[in-house]
Amino acid sequence: METNCQKLIDKSEENWNLAMDLCGDGQYNAAANRFYYSIFQVVKVYAIKKGKMKLEDRNGVHKIAKDLVRSEDKKLGRIYGDAENYRATADYLLEDVSKNN
Predict the structure, then answer these.
(1) DSSP state, 94?
(2) Rounded CA gap, 1 and 8, in Å?
């Protein structure tokens, strides 16, 4: 399990670095998506280690992750929720996330 969790952390780091590059290029919608998934992947590792999720789980994982973060730390829960909202705007709406500041 540790090896798989490390692979997910590595994937998270890759997504974070991609998001940083995308921000540098002014591609904020794509960056918001990559930032969110980077954060989600780390939370998923935490959830796996706490026995709240399995690596192969797909259904309902975003809600599980959000609920777990909120239950552990309200401030981090708000930050996680903001990241999720930016990602949803970037992926599903016509609005550009750079206008949400």
Answers:
(1) S
(2) 11
